[in-house]
TrEMBL record:
InterPro entries: Aldose_1/G6P_1-epimerase (IPR008183), Gal_mutarotase_sf_dom (IPR011013), Galactose_mutarotase-like (IPR047215), GH-type_carb-bd (IPR014718)
Gene Ontology molecular function: aldose 1-epimerase activity; carbohydrate binding
The protein, known as: Galactose mutarotase-like domain-containing protein
Protein keywords: Carbohydrate metabolism, Isomerase, Signal
Pfam families on file: Aldose_epim
Organism: Mycena metata
Span of the signal peptide: 1-17
Keyword Nucleotidyltransferase: no
GO biological process, one term: glucose metabolic process
Lineage top rank: taxon: Eukaryota
Family membership noted in the UniProt record: Belongs to the aldose epimerase family.
Keyword Ribosomal protein part of the UniProt annotation: no
Amino acid sequence: MVFKALVLASLVLNAVAVSTPRAADPLATVALAAPDGSIKANFMAWGATTTNLWVKDKNGKFRDVLLGWDNHTLYQTQADGHPYFAPVVGRYANRIRNGTFTIPISKDASGPGKKFQIVENENNGTDTLHGGLIGYDARAWSTIKQSASSVTFQLVDPAGFQGFPGEVTTEVTYTLENKSQWKISMHSTATELTPIMLSGHHYWNLEAYEESQDLNSHIVQAEASRWVATNGLLIPTGKLNSVEGTPLDFRKPKSLGLSINATAALGNCGTGCVGFDNAWVYDRPNCGESVFSIWSTNSGIKLDVTTDQIALQIYSCNGIFNPDLPIPRKADQGGPDVFYQDHSCVVIEQESIIDAINNPEFGVNQIYGPHRSYNWESTYAFSVLK
């Protein structure tokens, strides 16, 4: 998603860190490994965040392919900005037009139905991003179960917080499995009718910045023939457009980095933006097979995603570099004396269709409650190019 350095958010987050019940140290590292040792990862309870993920390249060497901070306090204080480095984002991922919705849902919260106002935290207070000023990424989760290869975090989101109705209890389980597989499961229950849309907000560079500093060698394939049209602020218009003849057509494998310049004329990532910050709708959702793949021809690392989610968001790190607040790379990605640059990484989010709670024409029911729980399942399978 678009990089935002929110000074106000930093102040509020510091206050929340003091008042929110949590484990003794939500920044402590939870180190896991698959039983066969093929994949390793570190997590922490703050934001249910993945801080590191190591997989083997074509030479059998482990590389940490996730962006983040070596200094875990920066996840909490946001002193170096707020890029959402690999947490769970919610209660509602992505953007909500004007920070409003109705239940039952209506077009742009025009009614009928009860109207709700959520804390607006983006674009000068004109929309809500990732659940408001204090989203799921900015709270201490509880660690309720842990083994050598799996951990489960839980968050109780109070009724009315950030403006959302109902109390929501969410559990996310991260499991590292044999043959370099990472399984992520999320489950939420609510006491009242409320919108829920979660996602993992992971930043990837499958080379760990060793061979290059761009995405030219990153090849993407996605089984998606439609994308969600948005306005200049990346708010959905209610239309699903064809990818045919556009830079957003990844039905056949092509370079992500070499496709970026072609987006300038389309303006698909917002006014004045070059790159991708878009949602696609899968052609075969929940098919039980990989619907998204990305690989590096340099490192040889490949990622195949199987998911029960119907949509995909890709953000090509168009605004991650702020010259006034540059983010140092992790040490095992060449840092800290060099910084994460624009178009050098990619965020991949499995999720539902964005802002469907303001666009009933999408035909997606994102309202959950006492008689309908929320579920999210994805498997990230890593391999090496032959």
